Amino acid sequence: MEHSKFVEEVKSQLESEHKDLPVGRNGRDDNDLILWFLRDRKFLVQATVSKLAKALEWRRDFGVDKITDVSIRRMAATGKAYLHTSPDVEGRPVVIVVAAKHFPVEEELVESEQLCIYLIEKALSQLPPGGDKMLGIFYLRGFKSRNGDLKFMKFLIDVFFNYYPKRMGQVLFVDAPYIFQPGWNMVRPWLKSYANLVRFCSVAEVREQYFTPATVPVDFM
């Protein structure tokens, strides 16, 4: 009951100050979305209104709801990122990034960003009852300097800080080669407290600790 009071305050303020923002699912009157951002902002109404308004503006301007299977088909075909068909042992949807298949090309940055958002949205749509977080796995075997992409990493960090706050339950860096370390040293300060979500581990640890024999992703068999 107490939470509903805060939700209604945020909803009322958004209606008053941001009439141009969309309504409906993932809109300014979506109770679940408002409650999630309230929790992120520790139930401070004004802070929630400010952050949620920016997130909704971004969703509209980025065209999140217009991204489809067809629009991301070419980038998805590279196999560099995908939603695993099974959750992990905690029931979390799993997005896997195969870093060695990512080759940064300036004109393809928007397509990579769209694939990223498509996978996040799809993962969140598969959350189990009571679930609220996903698992991200970066498979780094074979990673070379040519696969590094600071622009995309900045986009990804911005996305999870501002538009999908606290939706990432954990991030696994799997079989990271030595050449990955300088890039990580550069990116880590950007993550602030989110860096605590990162775990470096091996393929065997992923296979044995995060999945059952029947649900292990093909890349880790």
UniProtKB/TrEMBL annotation:
<protein>
    <recommendedName>
        <fullName>CRAL-TRIO domain-containing protein</fullName>
    </recommendedName>
</protein>
<dbReference type="Pfam" id="PF00650">
    <property type="entry name" value="CRAL_TRIO"/>
</dbReference>
<feature type="domain" description="CRAL-TRIO">
    <location>
        <begin position="71"/>
        <end position="221"/>
    </location>
</feature>
<dbReference type="InterPro" id="IPR036273">
    <property type="entry name" value="CRAL/TRIO_N_dom_sf"/>
</dbReference>
<dbReference type="InterPro" id="IPR001251">
    <property type="entry name" value="CRAL-TRIO_dom"/>
</dbReference>
<dbReference type="InterPro" id="IPR036865">
    <property type="entry name" value="CRAL-TRIO_dom_sf"/>
</dbReference>
